Amino acid sequence: MYKPRNFTILLLFIFSLVGCCSGKTVIVLLPDRDHQVGQIEIRNKYGVSTLSLAGDAVSVKRGDAPTPILVPDEKVKQIFADALSSEPITPEKYILYFLWDSIELSPASSLFVDEIIAEARKRASTDISVNGHTDRCGSNKFNIGLSHRRAEKVKDLLIAGGIASEAISVTSHGEGNLLIKTEDNAPEPRNRRVEVIVR
After folding, report:
1. I need a surface site. Which of 17, 141, 155, 159 has the fewest CB within 10 A?
2. For 123-133, how does the pLDDT look when each residue is reduced to its tens digit (9 = 90+)?
């Protein structure tokens, strides 16, 4: 089983402060749920400022260059409490591998079905995508059917674990969406897979 890393998400919050900074727009860079931080450049005709660390902030006022400022963590949490609590949860993606010409999971991948079920329950997910794939051995028509049977097999395992069938959508790609590019009729275990996305 392979669990891809989530892409870094750039979180920016913009607000107008009152009091000592009245009339200025303040931009704050925050980490994503995996504690990753992107980078952004704030530029106008008067100057430029780069935000690259969690908590970096600049104030911007008409007629002035972007100016780095310090916004205390407590202030950030206070101002952005609602926005931070409503931030959508990043989907989790799992890749399960199959034996050659089979709808049987590889022994290693079969161990992770319970993890997918637990993640779906934790999220109370009603949106789970199960996408079947094959390598390029066999005809395209055969592989479309095989990839569909693999996806249905995973769906059945999720349902057996207590996930509602209506929460699961199934697609099959055959050999049309390879993870590893190969020549025709070349066996490639990493292409014999089902990708599960839990939202």
Report:
1. 141
2. 999 999 999 99
